[in-house]
């Protein structure tokens, strides 16, 4: 037996055996059984890995808005016409700290078309099959960033307040791809769930939410529905309000999956490396990597700074993984929980 000072509290009452004379009698056998039992229970506490509790899925309802047309007068001024319906989706809530939490929306498995004929970088248009996963209801906010940045470091230090356009409920920005990955790693370490950036295919599938139009809102975009550079129009759209900064998340209508701010707001990092086209791209929704880890990484969705063309569901751009910009943020994803 080791010295008493080396034993856990549960074994110290048995330390007298350290000097006991071995006797073949019933008391000795009983005491040895006790020692073995206590040791086994103690080892169980050291080696047993508890399965993370699966939080119950909840549901929420929301308005799904579609642009049905644009009416213009003889002077060329006009306004959009919309229709709406009620949508319903499942979500899970991850507690972060205090009153700060992170909501993830269930993205159902399915198949959709990816890309467009509008830009060579968006071709060839191709079908992708996406497994069920969960995606942040909103881009990561500054309050959520602060909560996770306070968690133990995994690989990189994180600035707790990197954003240039301040506001707890505004999307975090001025974060690099590397920092977004570190955020996911810290959140995974804390919650024991596999948080990650979405693949580019997952992002477009989630953005479209079953639509085939340039925007999940329809054939054009309007400043009443998204935050972008609305002095420039797309298609039959009309000029609108240029906010020239980020806004609180969730200010505009969701898509049919229940995701907010997929068009405009801030660009969102994806896990994939940049490729000039979709030639040889995977069709199973997986991350498309390159041989060089410093290659550009995908950003999607456009931002408050961009014209509507760059905010389309299919539009794709890239940045080097250590780039930071007041127009770039991200949202998290995770695979479907085990059942």
From TrEMBL:
SUPFAM superfamilies: C-type lectin-like (SSF56436). Gene3D superfamilies: paralog of FGE (formylglycine-generating enzyme). InterPro entries: CTDL_fold, Sulfatase_Mod_Factor_Kinase, SUMF_dom, SUMF_sf. Residues 103-332 form the Sulfatase-modifying factor enzyme-like domain. Coiled coil: none annotated. GO terms for molecular function: formylglycine-generating oxidase activity. This is Formylglycine-generating enzyme family protein. It comes from Leptolyngbya foveolarum.
């Amino acid at each position: 037996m080791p010295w008493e000072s080396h034993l856990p509290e549960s074994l110290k009452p048995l330390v007298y055996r350290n000097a006991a004379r071995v006797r073949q009698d019933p008391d000795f056998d009983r005491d040895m059984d006790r020692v073995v039992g206590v040791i086994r229970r103690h080892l169980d506490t050291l080696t047993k890995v508890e399965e993370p509790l699966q939080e119950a899925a909840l549901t929420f309802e929301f308005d799904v808005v579609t642009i049905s047309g644009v009416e213009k007068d003889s002077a060329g001024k006009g306004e959009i016409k919309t229709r709406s319906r009620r949508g319903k989706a499942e979500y899970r809530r991850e507690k972060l700290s205090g009153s700060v939490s992170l909501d993830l929306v269930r993205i159902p498995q399915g198949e959709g078309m990816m890309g467009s004929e509008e830009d060579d970088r968006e071709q060839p248009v191709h079908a992708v099959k996406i497994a069920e996963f969960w995606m942040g209801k909103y881009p990561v906010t500054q309050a959520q960033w602060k909560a996770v940045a306070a968690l133990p470091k995994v690989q990189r230090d994180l600035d707790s307040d990197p954003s240039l356009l301040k506001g707890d409920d505004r999307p975090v920005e001025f974060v690099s791809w590397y920092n977004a990955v570190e955020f996911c790693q810290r959140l995974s370490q804390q919650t024991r769930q596999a948080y990650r950036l979405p693949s580019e295919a997952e992002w477009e599938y989630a953005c479209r939410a079953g639509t085939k139009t340039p925007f999940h809102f329809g054939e054009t975009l309007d400043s009443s529905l998204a935050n972008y550079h609305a002095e420039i129009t797309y298609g039959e759209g009309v000029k609108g309000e240029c906010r020239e900064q980020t806004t609180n998340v969730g200010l505009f209508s969701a898509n049919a999956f229940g995701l907010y701010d997929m068009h405009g707001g801030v660009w969102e990092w994806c896990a994939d490396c940049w490729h000039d086209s979709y030639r040889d791209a995977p069709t199973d929704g997986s991350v498309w990597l390159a041989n060089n880890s410093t290659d550009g990484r995908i950003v999607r969705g456009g931002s408050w700074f961009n014209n509507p063309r760059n905010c389309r569901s299919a539009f794709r751009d890239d940045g080097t993984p250590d780039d930071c910009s007041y127009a770039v943020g991200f949202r998290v994803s995770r695979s479907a929980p085990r059942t």
